[in-house]
Model the fold of this input.
Amino acid sequence: MKRILIVDDSFYMRTMLKNMLTDAGYDVVGEAPNGQTALELAKSTNPDLITLDVILPDNTGLDVLKGIKAEQPDMKVIIVSAVGQEVIMNEAMEYGALSYIVKPFSEEKVLEVVSKTLASDG
Amino acid sequence: MKSREEEYKEIFIAEALEYYDALNRHISVLEKQPQDDHTLAEIFRLLHNLKANAKAIGYLQISDVSHKLETAFSLIRNKELSFSDEVVTVLFDGIDMLGDLIHNIDNTTAGDPDPVLLRNLDIIVDSLADNTIELAKVQRYHTSKNLSLSDLIYIQIKKLDNLMNLVGELIIDRDRILSISRELDNDELKNVSSHLYRITDDLQYSVMDARLVSIGTLFNKFPRIVRDIAVAEGKVINLELAGQDIQIDRNILQIITDSLLHLVRNAITHGIERPEEREKKGKPATGNLSLAARSDRENVLITLTDDGKGIDLKQVKRAAIERQLISAEAAKGLRDMDALSFLFEPGFSMAKEVTEFSGRGVGLDVVKNAIDSIGGRLQVHSEKNKGTTFSMRLPTSIAVKGALLFEVAGIFFGIPLIHTDHVIAMDIDELHEVGNVLVADIKGETVTVVYLHELLNAPEADMRLGDKSRLKGIVQNIIVVTYNNRKLGLIVDKLYRQQDIVVKPLSKPLDSIDLYGGVTLLGTGKVCLVLDVPAITRNFINRR
Done:
């Protein structure tokens, strides 16, 4: 079972994502509400994939991405963010995020992007 | 039952109200320090989340107002809009409007948001750096604001665990006080302690109740999972769910989640046949899988039934012989029920091939251990070509257990009721020495019986489990326990009563003794050891 870490500061979003992913048979190994926890969990759970919201408390979304990529260069990261954040999203792709999902998202979209990203070579 | 939609809505509202409170806090700070980037970033983040969440759940007015405010604040952040008095008023009004919309989500009589205010928001968002923006005066509709708090709180399960532990301690003391009041025979003390008894009972049930969730929260995940596995395995399956409303302790549900998933996967990959194979056997092409929960006094019973090919007992026996768990000779006379119990031996697997969904070296022993760890019971029944049923009997609460109290060699013991089948008194003549054990005919079934005193206390070299001369007296009290489809009779010296007990784990250095699941204090102040039936059964089998 593929293991996924969810990083999002909204409990509502984390719950929705978690339900969608576990329903689809993925193993959600952790949920991080802020950058600090995200970095710790990325290291300790070493998931197959991370979904990362770029707007986190203290604006640490991109820093989290850089931090993860510095320690685990092969880690697959998908950016999850709302419309209007195209600038940050583009920047995130430059820092090594593989794909993105725009909020509000449909279950189909999430599962499609996640399975494609997991299947990609990174 | 709480549907997932209702659950989402509750979470959305609770979080939205939290955001609303935080927004009010931050904008008040910002009014005094308009250049505080940190506060601006926080406000931006909160509005951003509120917008995205509201859009996802379908509260479009909330997402629309959040979006306008978010745009306004991003303009302020980029110094394209100054945080002037007029702007501040509109922003405060806008945040108030958000609060109103959130509070009135369920109120269908609440009108649409004030159009003047919405227009004002549009003006500041669209006019950008225009200093001469004209804002219509808004009649502030909050002349007297009501303060309101959310009806829902989040609580960490850790805090509820702690509360449950404290209630456990309280119950031990309560029983002690009740016992002392009887000894002292003081009426006033008796009255107070019986009142104490009732309120601690209520308290215990309230805390237990706060930890309950409906089984549906787990069951409702299965339609999708079953569908996916079935597609991958080329099976056609109809899943029936029942008893989603049954309530169970959240931690127990958490612990059995993986086990249930494992069993469901097994049922689909190894149990239910492909449609063509089913039709050849005269079965409907669509396989049936049923996942049901029901409550039975103190316990919750979860059953998983498939109408597949059943477990091949010959194959189980062959695998058991190969793994030297049993001799070929003994395997011949083995009852079906006993053969099935090999399935739960560590590492026992009959899977020939590893598929994506099952057979990754995780055996049923993992499931068994998970159920054992919470004091539950796992049983399996299988009939060739008819199907297989796994039943889990689970306690509704981890901390408090119904137990049967008894005495062996002057020491008090308890056995969780979940493992006891029945209690019987037998004449010593009805026990027979067979090989190096005792057996008895109990309700038409030949059951191995063991004198607990001998098993627990006799020195290794002098242990004679099959020697009747070690027993005391004529009439023997026997508690029949079941573990892993095996019945075992335990001879005890004296039987007492059934009682709810709070089991405390043994602490170091005693925690390495696995025969005991824990310890409890009786009302009399005496220590009572709680037997771990799975461990006792294993210990006994190893000795044979």
Observations:
- The first helix of chain B runs from residue 4 to 32.
- The radius of gyration of chain B is 32 Å.
- Chain B touches chain A at residues 4, 7-8, 11-12, 15, 38, 41-42, 44-45, 48-49, 51-53, 55-57, 70, 154, 221, 224-225, 228-229 (CB under 8 Å).
